[in-house]
Amino acid sequence: MSALVPVTVTSRLARLVRRAERGMTTAEYAVGTAAVIGFGTLLMQIFVDEETRQAIHQIVDVIVDIIINVLNSVAS
After folding, report:
1. Contact 20, 12 (CB under 8 A)
2. Separation CA 37–CA 63 (nearest Å)
3. Contact 46, 52 (CB under 8 A)
4. Interacting residues of 53 by C-beta distance below 8 A, sequence separation 6+
5. Following DSSP, what letter does each residue of 27-52 receive, concatenated?
6. Can you tell me whether residue 73 is helix, strand or coil?
7. b/e code 1-10 from CB counts within 10 Å (16+ = b)
8. Which of these, 66, 63, 61, lies nearest to 74 by C-alpha position?
9. Tens digits of per-residue pLDDT, 17-44?
10. What is the pTM for the complete model shown?
């Protein structure tokens, strides 16, 4: 079947480009995995700290209070 389809320069070039980029996805996954692990470690350190946890809790409480007040004013 390949003898019936002429091989052009562009198809050869495209094949060479694909062959040259075969390892790129593996490297990109490795960098992405390292970034996710680093970000997860940072988040764990933030949430393990008691002061940070209390600050986040206070922020969430304020947001919930605002939402409740808005919903109450809309309902009345």
Report:
1. no
2. 29
3. yes
4. 47
5. HHHHHHHHHHHHHHHHHHHHHHSHHH
6. helix
7. eeeeeeeeee
8. 66
9. 777 666 656 778 889 899 999 999 988 8
10. 0.44
